[in-house]
Amino acid sequence: MSRKAPADDVDPADDIAGTEVSEPKTWAAGVPGVTAALRQAYDQMGVRRTALTLVRVNQKPGFDCPGCAWPEGDHRHLAEFCENGAKAVAEEATTRRVTREFFARHTVAELAERSDHWLGQQGRLTEPMILRAGSEHYEPVSWDEAFGLLAEELNALDSPDEALFYTSGRTSNEAAFAYQLFARAFGTNNLPDCSNMCHESSGSALVETIGIGKGSVLLEDLHQADLIFVVGQNPGTNHPRMLSALERAKKDGARIVAVNPLPEAGLMRFKNPQRASGLVGKGTGLADRFLQIRLNGDLALFQALNRLLLESDAPDAVDEEFLTAHAHGFEAFRDHVLGLDWDAVLEATGLTRGEIAATLGDVLAAKKIVVCWAMGLTQHRNSVPTIREVVNFLLLRGNIGRPGAGVCPVRGHSNVQGDRTMGIYEKPAPAFLDALAEEFGFEPPREHGLDTVDAIRAMRDGTAKVFLGMGGNFVRATPDSAVTEAALRGCRLTAQVSTKLNRSHAVTGTRALILPTLGRTERDVQDSGPQFVSVEDSMGMVHASRGRLAPASPDLLSEVAIVCRLARATLSGPDLGWAEMERDYDVIRDRVSRVVPGFDRFNERIREKNGFTLPHAPRDERRFPTATGKANLTVNELEVLRVPEGRLLLQTVRSHDQYNTTIYGLDDRYRGIKAGRRVVFVNPADLEALGIGDGAVVDLVSEWTDGTERRAPAFRVVGYPTARGCAAAYFPETNVLVPLDSTAAVSNTPTSKSIIVRLETTGRPL
Ligand SMILES: Nc1nc2c(c(=O)[nH]1)N[C@H]1C(S)=C(S)[C@@H](COP(=O)(O)OP(=O)(O)OC[C@H]3O[C@@H](n4cnc5c(=O)[nH]c(N)nc54)[C@H](O)[C@@H]3O)O[C@H]1N2
Ligand SMILES: Nc1nc2c(c(=O)[nH]1)N[C@H]1C(S)=C(S)[C@@H](COP(=O)(O)OP(=O)(O)OC[C@H]3O[C@@H](n4cnc5c(=O)[nH]c(N)nc54)[C@H](O)[C@@H]3O)O[C@H]1N2
Ligand SMILES: [Mo]
């Protein structure tokens, strides 16, 4: 287990000398997974609370796991949780507390020196705190004064568009709906969210091609598939419960193709901890084929498969009936793909022609194909064209809108998809605003707002002055850390609604507020009685979540209550019913049912055993609500991302011991790393070519097209079997390397998975 940070000592997160490196693992979960989870849970919350809490994860009367957005099946195990879900729960249900005495002991400047790991380890926030102008310490403040200050700063702005309302994807549907309503009633669509850094590229590509920005498969489709591609995703760490679904599909004969520069343990073999055989046996082999692709090579791979399909003699290589009835743009797509340059494909992918041809064999043998993907596809310059090409691939064989087949963007945060459905979006659809206007009787702003990257630019340029974060850790999750930190420091007020301490509390505007809130695991009681909230998973299923633990402190407010009270303190004009919404969340759900399509009889259906599934026209009726009224095949230019001599393409990934910017511990068990995070994984052949030894200490220096450089100092080099020319290191330590202007075309998502870097040896000893 990871070393714990001593309370007030050197920060072990920055200590690379203690890092231990061993062989990467070739299988995921099983006994070490269970013991690692329980150890962390006991450590954070003790034995009794662990037992009480973990049995309620994802159970019918329980709470939705705050870990990830993977859906729960119908037949939930007594403890349908995974190692990393348990860590997420332990992190929230910890018995450690951050009190007013803590803030009296530590200046804000001192907190800004601490690692993410240390900050998170201090425990749950317990009361609202204020950092007054010129003060070095946060001090306690009443909720009323806190809302008064926010209202005062918001109302002092020259325009509502000088305010930013950020959301992280853990916020419930009810809180998200109230929050976007508040922002729009205040007068802005500035609703940047974590999705802008996450699956925005998927949403952009899917809306254009199939007419809806969400995945088209349900859990049972995955179970029934013949062939499943897992592309740019590390489910063993980030969606462990997905491994059960893959295991089940394999038992029914599915093949799995994993496409990844890293041979992630969770893609190779799975020992199911929910079954005795998984605890002792050798587990289930997962990937039948591993395509060790170069970073950013996926557009080339899928275009090559599409070309091979178009050229194939197999009678059913292309589903002509489907294309004729449902697709638009076939001729232009075909002409383009038939001109594909094989040399470019081999250069971009690093694969052989034989590997791609063999994969075509898998494809031709499969009637039902699902493609799953996550951040490995979404965080590149060409992410939107890449995902469009994946859609082309599925459409060619009619693999959208029938059982066992479809697109499966695997979402990150547990309610990130629901937040978007509730209107957390800087570019809201006119129909959504019309419905909002009709229901609430005010005219919402129509002009598009700022997304995450544009929000940083606005703060940097002084055109945004008040920042409110509904969860998350904006300063740490975003790119170009130095630029972003300066941007936030330029604000008049930064305020964070949070459960735990993080760097966004330490890098502040002139004044700052910490607004501590209830977590998913906790009882939420309002004047009308106990409340529950709802969430939407990665597959469009909406269900209730009800916490049972006593709140971490009596001074916490729910996110809903915070929004409603802030709205009452800030807004003039007709009352939109804030007090009623805070008092009884059914009132919010009633209003949602009249504004958001698919939520009719919300209050009734959310009380049904498994909740309900939102409609999805392509999946349910093969109807594609796009501009052409059909599924759009698209033309996507292949541009090979060339890296100059002596440079590597760096991706920033999650370790097994973190949840985004929350660092649970300093190990990455599956990749063989212990007690350290400042490591960079490089192919041994590249190390040799660069003349850098395994174990050397290097600075990572990124080179951007405008000639600027960015430096992340002191990383230990680890020779690792990643694809040639590629490197990997952990985020958020490496966010400093991602230029703010390096974003995906269309979606504006930071390119966190393809950064050109050089390794500079520092001569520093380990
Ligand atoms: N325990 C835990 N669970 C989590 C999270 C967490 O931090 N911890 N985060 C949550 C969130 S918000 C999200 S979005 C998801 C993230 O889930 P993932 O997307 O699985 O997370 P990453 O660590 O970013 O891993 C990216 C994977 O894509 C591969 N990859 C990178 N670039 C490319 C490429 O160009 N092509 C291909 N084919 N592969 C590539 C990497 O090697 C890696 O395996 O997980 C969610 N669940
Ligand atoms: N370089 C690089 N950067 C990345 C990524 C990457 O792969 N590489 N991934 C990106 C992705 S996919 C994402 S989604 C973003 C994540 O960006 P965010 O969502 O902003 O970041 P998190 O680290 O998930 O936020 C953690 C904080 O959320 C708060 N929190 C936890 N639970 C709750 C709750 O129930 N309510 C409230 N109000 N607060 C809560 C806690 O205070 C905790 O410190 O990061 C992005 N940044
Ligand atoms: Mo994410």
TrEMBL record:
It comes from the Bacteria. Residues 648-754 form the Molybdopterin dinucleotide-binding domain. One of its GO terms (cellular component) is membrane. GO terms for molecular function: 4 iron, 4 sulfur cluster binding; formate dehydrogenase (NAD+) activity; molybdenum ion binding; molybdopterin cofactor binding. Signal peptide: none annotated. Residues 1-23 are annotated as: Disordered. Residues 124-490 form the Molybdopterin oxidoreductase domain. Pfam families: Molybdopterin, Molydop_binding. Belongs to the prokaryotic molybdopterin-containing oxidoreductase family. This is FdhF/YdeP family oxidoreductase. It comes from Actinomadura litoris.
